């Protein structure tokens, strides 16, 4: 919840605009400003104060307890010109909130945390627990000093400007290590603790066993991703409470799933009780990984708890990102976030150029020229399988005649895949032409590079007969010039010569051009590979210079 506090009439007006924009996220605190700030500080994750920064500093200073606990505080000035991230820029989310508030109110976000200003992700914003000299290593990154990354576990980190050697170090490890000066330790969620317990096992026994086993094995509890057990123990209080106290989810598997897992130490007791020869080892090993600690029993007598620890392989992350047709403001915020999240970017050189300025320092760019599609797809998947965060980019929507399918055809289920939709050429062109896609429509690629012409022709014919609006992608190239006239002829067998046709070249790019013509008048020579051609159905009309396909067919009745 975001608490909103204001003092003046202008402040209250801006406050009300924000409250109206985010009805479910905000709560207005009325009354004397001091009391309101104190109440909101205690009750909310974030505050937006329509007050002078000085006033807010004085009010919140006595309430501050620490970076990780304090709410994020944003101040908006009386004129509504600036949204200042005052407290809790990273952990409290105030930097992000200042940007969001700025967008709603038309105010300039003001962010002063150094890593944001230098466009680096803060070490405390990577989504992983971090220990050690965070301030020292952050400063070194900012000052461009050599910082080495020592990763013992593969993990899809965002880009960091790291070097092979350095007097500062970022360690990525799930092992217990001394944190030295000039060193931070990032904790990947790489450990799975399998747990078994007899009915009524006390939480102290379960938790004591887990903590003792981790300590003895030299493993950090901060790297535990989840506890795992058998379905029959999903409600066992000692296990449920242990997971809650470790602060991780409890996942459970059926006895059948666990019985199928090969384990070093099966036994008869769980087989009789829950129907699998192993609970702790099997539950930890279900989704693969390396058994670091085989089954151990608690020291109590009789022992009521068992546990085993597995290190699961780091899963890479492949984001397949559509960049939209060209213009920066048609690139979605989600696409932008994924581009900045990736440490490896794979794409066609001309598309990389389109977004290069958005990439964070340290991003590795693997660009290639036209035609190397399969190779790009393979490279992206290979990089992700090494545990990296990869973005594979394509223009428009990356799933439309583009990289998503070859990449996912290569990908195995050992990586995470995230798709980000983009504005495809047909939509970008449609918006320029008017409303050509107001009724059923289809896209057809006229490229017979990968598809026999007979197949393409059959589809054009089907669209013609079904009176569907058609957008042709890849309509014509230097070596491929007879396909478009042929396709238009087929459509003309079922549509009047006066049927509107929209031709849009380089939609949303600097040299954008668009023409509205007709089936009979279209000159194919004016069409190239940077163009889409949209042919209306029998109801499509030109109205005031715009191409309009009605939602139904009632215009058919009107005399020509
Ligand atoms: N993934 C892309 C399409 C790739 S196929 C998308 O979703 O838009 C390449 C064809 O798309 C080009 O030959 C052209 O027909 C069309 N195209 C892509 N971008 C375009 C743009 N900005 N303006 C017009 N046509 C475009």
Automatic annotation (TrEMBL):
Keywords associated with the record: Cobalamin biosynthesis, Methyltransferase, S-adenosyl-L-methionine, Transferase
Domain Cobalamin synthesis G N-terminal: 36-116
CDD domains in the cross-refs: Precorrin_3B_C17_MT (cd11646)
One GO term of the biological process aspect: methylation
Domain CobE/GbiG C-terminal: 191-309
Domain Tetrapyrrole methylase: 317-522
Pathway, per record: Cofactor biosynthesis; adenosylcobalamin biosynthesis
Coiled coil: none
One Gene Ontology molecular-function label: methyltransferase activity
InterPro entries noted in UniProt: 4pyrrol_Mease, 4pyrrol_Methylase_sf, 4pyrrole_Mease_sub1, 4pyrrole_Mease_sub2, CbiG_N, Cbl_synth_CobJ/CibH_dom, CobE/GbiG_C, CobE/GbiG_C_sf
SUPFAM superfamilies: CbiG N-terminal domain-like (SSF159672), CobE/GbiG C-terminal domain-like (SSF159664), Tetrapyrrole methylase (SSF53790)
Keyword Methyltransferase: yes
Protein name in UniProt: Precorrin-3B C(17)-methyltransferase
Species of the source: Streptomyces afghaniensis 772
Source organism phylogeny: Bacteria, Bacillati, Actinomycetota, Actinomycetes, Kitasatosporales
